[in-house]
Amino acid sequence: MTRYESKSLIASFVVDGEEREVMLEGPQVTLAEVLRDKLDLTGTKEGCRCGECGSCTVLVDDKPVLSCSTLAVAVIGKEITTIEGLAKNGVLHPIQQAFIDSGAIQCGFCTPGMILMSKVLLDENLNPTEDEIKEHIGGNLCRCTGYIKIIEAIQLAAERMREVGI
Amino acid sequence: MSATYSFKTEAAKHELRYVGKRVPYKDAKEKATGTAKYSIDIHRPGAYFGKLLECPYAHARIKSIDISEAEKLPGVAAIITADNVPDTRYNPGGLEFAARSAQEAILDSVNDMQAVGRVSHYKGEALAAVAAQNEEIANRALSLIKIDYEILPYVLNVHDAMKEDAPLVHEFTDSNISQLFDSFPGNHGDVDAAFERADVTVESDLLSSRQHTMPLETLCCTAEFDVEGNLTVWTSTQRAFITRRMIANLLGIPEAKVNIICEHAGGFFGESNYSIVPFTVLLAKKANKPVRLEFSREEFARHTFCREIYQMHGKLGFTADGHLTGATEEMIVDSGAYFNRSHNTLPPAMGAFSGQYVLPAFRGLATIVYTHTPGTSGIRGYGPPSGMTLLNHLMDLGAEKLGMDRLELRILNYRKHDQAESLPAIEVNTEEEEEKELEHPSVKGLGSESQEGVLRVAAEKFGWAEKSRRPKTDGKWRRGIGVGDYMDVSGPQPLEMNDRQCIMTLEEDGSITVIVGHGDGGQNLLGAAAQIAAETSGLHYEDFRFIHAETKGTLYDIGLGGNSGNFGMGNLFAHAGMLLKKEILKKASTFMGMPADCLDIKDGMIFVKSSPTTAMPVKKLAYKSIVVQKGSSEHISITARFSAFHSPLAVGVVMADVRVDIETGDIKVDKLLMCHDCGRAINPMGVEGQLQGGGIMGYGYTLFEDLSIGEDGGVRGGNYNSYKLPSALDIPDFDTIIYEHPCPAGPFGAKGIGQSGTIGLGGAIAGGIYDATGIWLDTMPFTPEKLLAAIKEKGIKEQK
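Predict the joint structure of the above. Result:
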């Protein structure tokens, strides 16, 4: 039986520098669903679907959002950065490299959200104190590492970025 | 600031090529770039949406169920109920496949679970499931299923469950007491006489809490049959081959027709649950379509297993000079609606309690009871965390009564070096000569002889003596320090198997492909394995590549749990590396015209020992062997096997500097220090990560984690907004010391590590609270609310 759905729309997003057109069934579709299910960018994770764990963190116009709790229609036309868009031409972002070098990645499920959240901090402040780091990533849960190596990774990334004058 | 330290005994001090190095983990890059796929990321084309129908009652029987209207709904592919699935009963942990033999199992495995039943045993248990084209149709279908329930009485705690007229959780039993464990092998001596002759006895109680694993990835399963009836299952599991056997048994098909794929898991911390798999598989079979079933976070909390809840009573007897005369430990274990591995955690729980100190007499007794709550099982720590919290308090009470220093009392009762027996030889399929080639430090022992060293090093770093002299009162604050010592294992052997096998093949480009049946949950077990294999083979760490994520094409493996990986897998790879080296040198001797025992390999280069510049890259040998050899092409390939029969003890201690606000009951941990003897740190970064991660998990369990059950038996909430995990803002300053006292049976001396971090937190923090206030809270978690009530009752007032 054919029926016409009045709530659906075709929306345009800029994801990791590329314009992507996506069919939304309605205004209830979340940004996480667009990224994970429609664009097959599964680097962004969902751990709770209620905005509590931070695994779904992506950047919208360089600001962090919880994509599980963000309606896709609210970010039409905006610049979205996912974990897949962080490395440039195969070269890892210093934060990604620092996480690898510090042993800050165990199961890796919190990692994409954690790295993107760290980027927001370091874009603004390349010399954060330990307390500033903890405050900043306080909304990104990790069950594996106990956070200590994550904090060290962010400090290492900051140090390396300061050295090359990023 | 949290710092990490290293303490090496003499045998650990020599430098190796790869072992002991902080090598970045093998899969870190794919995780850092978001390319690693987890089971929740799997979307098979044409997969249908699976959803459970949850019973709203803690205990109810289906009087009638009518799925006809739901089945007719367009877009519904299958509905499963007890009427159309096998009714076999099985143990949800696949326990019978892990034990070495039925005779060796200390307690009987109980098969109490059915894939889909007619009775609910806990609130929310699924008694039907649907596969439909999408979530909306699945939800509508569920609402069209008509069920008439007979609502039955239920019991939510062990005391009610043990009453004579208590409603039975399982109809096939005649009591909710599922097992009585009074024949623990560690029971010895005459405990009553021991308490008679004691000058001082202490006793206390502790009720542990509903501690859940709550990994960041919830469970998701995709099941797909092909036209030949081969089944592929994508899911998170730390025991892929056991999951495979369970499903093969359930469907009545040969095991190799089932392929379980788990490439990455977003954390696995114990025997949580595999029940998502039967639902998904049975739906896929009925629908003849691929089915994907994902648990929401709340469903995960309801349908997966959390730690057993122990009601414990412990008693110790001492002579006047502080020697233990004997101990008893009694516990009633709430195993929830299902038995799973409840009994397997008891030997470690009892063993830790009775094995920590030299004890002339010990009696342990455990009663395992069913209740109408979600099932409990062995999760990270596997028994000891709760028991060691109580034992450490009992030792503190003893020290108090005896007027002795808490650390000295412990040291007095530790095993001394000459009391430790040497470990019998391990069984491997190598010849004796190869056995000698391995780095086996000459230290003998069960692994526990480092207890005193670990405690003293920790005390020094922590500043125990200085902190003890500090004034306890500071306005509204009371300060205290606590110690939680513990003993952990290096695998569940001999109770369960820790048998490992792998195939290593030299590719024509000189790299090594390793086939091993084992999934990764983030512990970097394969990276550490590669470090060990590179060390013993002389090949490059970077050149080891693993095929591991599917049961198809890999070798049977018991899976991970109980600290088994480092010791079992590590030993396997040490031997595999040696075997591969031997094969390479055998081949090289033909090409180089020299006897194999004149050759060696280092950094991927085969060289003549007496004339090292006469060399040939392994890469070249591999190529010639496969591509260019006259007569035939040959892969250099080996199969290695390792069976562990003994479990060296990995000992450790946690110390906590605690501050209590007597006006609010708030508990602040200003400093934590953990010192763990891992034998040898294959990758220090990895060891630190496990200790820190386990420690913070134990910290959460001790102070606030507790899955709340309502009066109707239902899990309240179950998402991260109600079950709080430690966040970065909650962690205290936490120092770790990797103590290395190599154990002869371990690979380069390494022992268990994965779960040990969780064990000592309770003892240290509770000990600190007791030191600060004289208050022992007998119910976990130790929350400010409970502490404040106790402070008020005790009449502790602020000193101005």
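Chain A touches chain B through 57 residues (CB under 8 Å).
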